[in-house]
Amino acid sequence: MEREGTYEWLHFDGCDFEDVDGGSSGFAESAFSAATFTRGRYRRSQFEDIWLHTVRMVGTDRAETTWMDSECNEVVLAGTELSGSHMNRVNFYNCKFDSVNARLAKLRNVAFVDCLLRDVDFGGAVLTNVTFPGSTLDRAHFDNAKMTKVDLREAAGLSITSGLEALKGATISTYQLLDMAPALAQVLGLTVKDA
After folding, report:
1. What is the residue-level pLDDT of the chain in tens, covering all 195 positions?
2. Where are the domains of the chain?
3. Quick check: pTM over 0.85?
4. Which CATH class is domain 6-188?
5. Backbone angles phi, psi at 179, to 5 degrees
6. Considering only CA atoms, which of 80, 120, 85 is closest in space to residue 105?
């Protein structure tokens, strides 16, 4: 794999990519299975019609990447940089996100299904038509994010550390509202007292 390389109709099976500089590369109609990415730079790369299965990404730089019409199954992203990335029509199934930086990212028509998102930072991100069925958001950050048609109702867990005010444009369930009421009251500066 080389910087500014073009890769089409390939299957990367069981490959181990360590400290690779694949920045500004293009991947199309390809698959990655049982592959591991350790560190490495893939900044500004493009992924179109990509399928990933049981892939691990640890400490990789994928900032400002573009993802379209792709599917990720049982993918683990730990300490991964996704800031400024663009995703459109991307589905994540049974994936684990741990300490992922998605600040200023733009997500459109993205689904997180049965995923775990722990310490994921969506600060300043733009989320449009994004869903989280069966997924757990643990210590998520949404500072200054913008949401349109974001549906959180089917999330299995919803723990937001910061950026509650950015939920404008999102849909939550009555139960989630009651659960978040104390934190929302604090953000709004409300004092709640029983007479």
Report:
1. 889 999 999 999 999 999 999 999 999 999 999 999 999 999 999 999 999 999 999 999 999 999 999 999 999 999 999 999 999 999 999 999 999 999 999 999 999 999 999 999 999 999 999 999 999 999 999 999 999 999 999 999 999 999 999 999 999 999 999 999 988 888 888 888 887
2. 6-188
3. yes
4. mainly beta
5. -65, -35
6. 85
